[in-house]
Design goal:
Largest sheet: 8 strands, antiparallel, barrel
CATH topology of one domain: Rossmann fold
Helix content: 10-25%
Number of helices: 16
CATH architecture of one domain: 3-Layer(aba) Sandwich
Number of strands: 53
Structural class: alpha+beta
Shape: globular
Distance between the termini: 90 Å
Strand content: 25-35%
Strand order of the largest sheet: 5-6-7-8-9-10-11-12
Length: about 1050
């Protein structure tokens, strides 16, 4: 019956009506249900948690932002960043405008190629590959025009509704019109009526009428006609008039809701950043990160060049300008606020600007300039002679016009190169008044003035082989303090240790330098110098060594001093490892006639009006430099990392100072008044405080702290007079690498919490809703695999101390279960870091723990026992002279607590750890052999007297040169006690924890007849973290096999009728007993 409605086919081309019939037949006969089921099954398999997914060859996390810092007035925040697809390269500079929320990419490979030959190779490589991939400048221009809304894309999208026909071959039904842009930016449309789809050609848009017009010309379907669509509010009406076959259809349409994308788009980098992909030299294709990979074990014949990017940035203290270091050279970047604030306009709008500056190079090929160039490159862009100016003449084609031939370069400041040398510049600092800068080059300190470009070497000639290692210019720029070292360093001293390499036909030995605890301590000295620069240009500078000491041990530390705001004095801390004392010292410039160091600010008396010296001869100094004196000292009896955090900072009165100590049992701020040698505590409580920025007026100190939860870090502002602690962030998680404006009203930070990966955020404190995510750094897989959040827990150990951790449980877990338990432990000090931190997506504590819970039904936990950092001095110093003992107690207590409260079988307890955790796993297995049935120990230092002296003597115990005092903590004598199953893992080429530590304990196990209890898993070419022949997935495959082989899978408890307690009732938590 359907065929009677069709006229005979007159050509060999398929008729539209036949296509309708065929489409209907295909639709009626399609196996849609089966296909949907197959797709669902495929999706489930794809999303299943597997070792291959969580331990891929390449990380699914992208690079993060770094070096966040604010301009002097707080308007701009700068940071370094590279998007995910550029992860093989160095970072570039981005500027975030706090007044507008806009972010611009200020440096790119194409911009730096104007100065650097190595970067020009990168640009040429990118241009070639971009052209091969059919990427054009016009396409990049369209991206920019769409982003900056120079073209109105709002009418684009999908319109849906119904059709009414006057009769004809097209049967009315569900109708949709999809309008979009092709790669060239031209409008394209697709009309679907029922089962018929037609392409709309020559599509134009009349902005004034809000109407589209187009043509239907489908020779293959013998269809011709005209199409029109008119938009009103959120609705639209359309008309299709076909001349062949003759039929008219009218449509009433509404805008379709935007579909949720089935797949997360690739990482966008800095979200909405202006200045991305401005030239073909800035186009980085998706395969760039793997372009230098080996294929079938062979490296590429020619390696693609790598862009080094920007390595450091420094804001001027007085103006909107910066100093950058790229490839070891210094650049100056100056911003004109008028140009920055000017709207970025398309070419047609810019043509009317008569004073446009010379553009930076935008040619496909980078310029050949390689010499140092003091001429700034500006970013204003005039019309070029051969460029078509955007002058739309027909309003009906407005959305297709103007033609954007290439991107407009937005204003990004004037960039000039300041150095070009064969040596690398470092430690660049602006002079306090912003008039110039200082930097280090091969141990020399150089000062440059912007006004006359004079280069002056500031470091004086030192004797006896002393070398400057750090410096600070006084706020008034008249004085210099620097730190100098003399003698052999700890790292260069010591003995040569042999490591065997098995990569070649025959084994060969190679050596590494290692200072052992029993090695003699090298004769080394550190000194603090004060240098008056008033007569330096006339070679009259006054230099005094104000403090010198011989180092007593590898943990001795002395930082570069801090200047008082009035430039009259310096303060610094010195830690002596042998005595354990921390000394706070002060030195300074005093009146030459003064009898003692004044207790308060020193004002320089005015010069006498009368003088016998010629006017051109400088006056003799009217001050004297006094040696450093101890203004306070205390015995440090806390964690090994705290002395390095003690750094005195002056308050506005140039007398009192603030610094961290652990005297209260936790790292807290203390205020010292040297006049009375009075020390008072500013912050207090069972939490830790870490300063990161002192406001320019010295009245407010910004810190991160674990105030409300040791597993989180929030930012705070502390008024040093009132001692009030104002919360700046209050979102659960960790705010790290924080930069804050001096008024405390705007901050940038890397924020992370379980549920998603880390990103750079901006926020205004006090308004949590103002938090804005600035970066999109990770691919879809990184987001999918971080959605799960572990459950946090605490328990009390046998001494009543609270132990923290987190765990994963299987979905069908009940308190009545008897499941295997896997505990991950590190157990050693890590400064500020710990294992049970929120948002820490470490392989052992998060991914493998989650895998064992979800796939194999285990309860998997991470525990921070005593010995870990971040929980106070009692925890971090717990190892000293009793290494591993406190951790063993806490881990045993934790295992028993799990058995009583969390459905764990006391016969199926396992643990694992790496490095210190590898030692701790063995220690627990040997000293508590009846508790844990299985252990997996990776790269554990089993003989502390063979580990480096810096760590061993600071964390493990005291050791005298010539004696192996730490041998008493060796695990070798304890190995014979092993009862459970132990997997030992190590990289043969490990230069940190020597492979011999595992071999020697393995030998003791064999001698004790434990060959059935122990397995050895080696990476012949691996280092401390492996990474040789054994990849990460291989290591965890081995772990999985070892655990399942010995303890099996976890299963849910099946309740019986005789059980009195229902399965839904929670088990009462109990604390472990002695």
């Amino acid at each position: 019956m359907l065929l009677t409605h069709f006229r005979p086919i007159r050509s060999s081309k398929p008729d539209l009506r036949v296509l309708v019939l065929l489409a209907a037949a295909c639709f009626l006969g399609s196996p849609s249900i089966g296909a949907a089921a197959a797709r669902e099954d495929k999706t489930e398999k794809k999303d299943a948690l597997t070792l291959e997914r969580i331990f891929p060859e390449r990380s699914f996390f992208g690079p993060g932002a770094s070096s966040m810092t604010f301009s002097h007035d707080g308007r701009f925040a700068a940071f370094l960043y590279r998007p995910y697809h550029e992860r093989r390269h160095g970072s570039d500079l981005y500027i975030h405008d706090t007044s507008t929320g806009q972010t611009r990419r200020v440096t790119t490979a194409s911009r730096m190629a104007e100065f650097e030959a190595s970067t020009r190779l990168v640009v040429e490589d990118r241009e070639k590959k971009a052209k091969a991939a059919n990427v054009s400048l016009a396409q990049l221009a369209r991206e920019q025009a769409s982003q900056l809304e120079w073209i109105d894309d709002r009418p684009l999208g999908t319109w849906e509704g119904t059709a009414v026909s006057d009769g004809g071959p097209i049967t009315t039904g569900k109708t949709s019109v999809v309008i979009s842009r092709d790669r060239k930016g031209d409008l394209v449309g697709e009309l679907s009526v029922g089962l018929v789809s037609l392409t709309i050609k020559a599509l134009t848009y009349d902005d004034a009428a809000s109407a589209f017009k187009g043509a239907i010309d489908d020779a293959a379907r013998s269809a011709k006609g005209e199409f029109a669509l008119s938009i009103k509010d959120e609705g639209a009406s359309a008309l299709l008039v076909l001349t062949e076959p003759a039929q008219t259809l009218t449509f009433q349409l509404t805008r379709a809701a935007a579909e949720t994308p089935k797949k997360r788009p690739p990482p966008a980098g800095v979200i909405g950043a202006i200045g991305e992909r401005l030239t073909l030299g800035d186009v980085v294709l998706d395969d760039d990160a793997t372009v230098n990979d080996e294929v079938d074990g062979r490296p590429p014949r020619t390696r693609a060049p790598r862009y080094s990017g920007i390595s450091s940035i420094e804001w001027s203290p007085k103006s909107h300008e910066m100093l950058l270091i790229s490839d070891g050279e210094i650049y100056r970047l100056v911003f004109d606020l008028n140009q920055w604030d000017a709207p970025i306009k398309p070419v047609a709008a810019q043509a009317a600007q008569p004073d446009a500056e010379e553009p930076e190079s935008q040619n496909d090929d980078a310029t050949n300039e390689s010499e140092a160039d003091s001429t700034p490159t500006a970013d204003a862009r005039p019309i070029e002679d051969n460029e078509a100016v955007a002058t739309p003449t027909d309003s009906a084609t407005r959305i297709n016009e103007p033609k954007f031939d290439k991107p407009v370069i937005p204003y990004r400041g004037e960039l000039s190169r300041l150095t070009r040398t064969r040596e690398r510049e470092a430690d660049v600092q602006y002079l306090p008044d912003g008039s110039g800068y200082t930097y280090m080059r091969s141990g020399s300190l150089l000062r440059v003035s912007f006004n006359d470009h004079t280069i002056m070497q500031l470091d004086p000639e030192l004797k006896d082989g002393e070398r400057m290692v750090g410096y600070r210019i006084s706020p008034d720029q008249k004085r210099l303090v620097f730190l100098a070292n003399r003698g052999d360093s700890y790292w260069s001293g010591g003995r040569q240790v042999t490591i065997v390499n098995y990569r070649d036909r025959f084994a060969r030995a190679q050596t590494v330098t290692r200072h052992m605890p029993d090695d003699p301590w090298p004769e080394a000295y550190s000194s603090i110098y004060l240098y008056d620069l008033a007569g330096h240009d006339k070679e009259r500078g006054t230099l005094e060594r104000v403090f010198t000491r011989r180092l007593s041990g590898p943990r001795d530390i002395m930082r570069i001093p801090d200047w008082s705001p009035d430039s009259s004095r310096i303060a610094f801390a010195a830690f002596d490892q042998q005595s354990g004392h921390v000394k706070i010292l002060e030195a300074g410039f005093v009146d030459a006639n003064a009898k003692s160091v004044p207790p308060t600010t020193v004002d320089t008396p005015p010069a006498s009006a009368e003088s016998d010296k010629p006017a051109t001869e400088p006056e003799e100094p009217i001050f004297k430099i006094e040696n450093a004196r101890v203004v306070y000292q205390f015995l440090h009896h806390g964690g090994p990392n705290t002395p390095g955090m003690v750094a005195p900072m002056y308050l506005p009165d140039s007398r009192r100072m603030v610094f961290i100590t652990e005297l209260s049992g936790f790292r807290h701020l203390h205020l010292l008044d040297p006049r009375y040698e009075a020390l008072s505590q500013i912050t207090e409580g069972q939490f830790e405080v870490y300063p990161f920025h002192l406001a320019r007026d010295h009245s407010t100190l910004f810190v991160t702290a674990t105030k409300d939860d040791p597993n989180q870090e929030q930012a705070y502002a502390i008024d040093l007079e009132s001692r009030q602690m104002r919360t700046l962030t209050d979102r659960p998680g960790v705010f790290g690498s924080v930069a804050v404006r001096d008024d405390g009203n705007y901050l940038l930070a890397r924020y992370v919490d379980f549920g998603g990966p880390s990103e750079l955020v901006a926020m205004r404190p006090g308004t949590p809703e103002s938090l804005t995510v600035l970066t999109d750094s990770h691919p879809e897989e990184g987001h999918k695999l971080t959605t799960a959040s572990p459950e946090y827990f605490t328990y009390e150990n046998r001494h009543g101390q609270t132990i923290h951790g987190h765990m994963f449980k299987p979905a069908d877990w009940t308190p009545q279960d008897k499941r295997p338990l896997l505990i991950y432990v590190y157990g050693g000090p890590l400064g500020e870091r710990k294992m049970a931190t929120r948002g820490d997506y470490a392989a052992p504590s998060y991914f493998f723990a989650r895998y064992m819970a979800e796939v194999h039904g285990w309860v998997a936990a991470t525990i921070d026992p005593r010995g870990a950092s971040g929980y106070g001095a009692v925890f971090e110093k717990a190892n000293f002279e009793q290494v591993g003992k406190p951790q063993t107690e806490d881990l045993v207590d934790g295992a028993r607590w799990f058995v009583k409260n969390h459905g764990v079988d006391d016969k199926k307890l396992a643990m694992h750890g790496w490095s210190f955790g590898g030692f701790q796993t063995q220690m627990t297995m040997y000293t508590e052999p009846d508790v844990f049935a299985v252990g997996m120990a990776g790269a554990g230092p089993t003989e502390w007297h063979n580990y480096n002296s810096w760590y061993s003597t600071g964390t493990i115990g005291a050791n005298n040169p010539g004696r192996t005092d730490l041998e008493k903590f060796s695990l070798l004598p304890l190995a014979k006690n092993l009862k459970g199953k132990l997997l030992l893992v190590h990289g043969v080429e490990d230069s940190n924890v020597l492979y011999q530590d595992t071999v020697r304990v393995y030998r003791e196990l064999l001698k004790a007849g434990k060959e059935v209890n122990v397995e050895l898993f080696l990476d012949p070419t691996g280092g401390h973290g492996l990474g040789g022949d054994v990849k990460t997935i291989g290591r965890y495959r081995k772990y999985e096999d070892f655990l399942i082989r010995h303890l099996g899978k976890g299963t849910a408890h099946i309740a019986t009728q005789t059980e009195e307690q229902p399965a839904t009732e929670e088990a009462q938590e109990e604390q472990p007993t002695e």
